[in-house]
Amino acid sequence: MTEAKTRIGLIGYGTIGNAVHQMIDADPENGMEIAFVHDVDSSRLNDLTPELVLTDLAEFESAEADLVVEMAHPDVSRQWATTILEKTNYMLISVTALADRAFEESLEETTCRHGTRAWLPHGGGVGVDALLENRDVWEEVSVIMKKPPGNVDCAAAGIDPDSITEETTLYDGPVRDICPKFPRNVNTIATIAYASLGFDRTNAKLIVNPAWNTATVAVHARAPGIILDIERAETISGVTGASTPASIYNSIQMIGSTGSGIHIR
Question: How are beta strands 215-223 and 226-234 bridged, if at all?
Answer without folding.
Answer: antiparallel
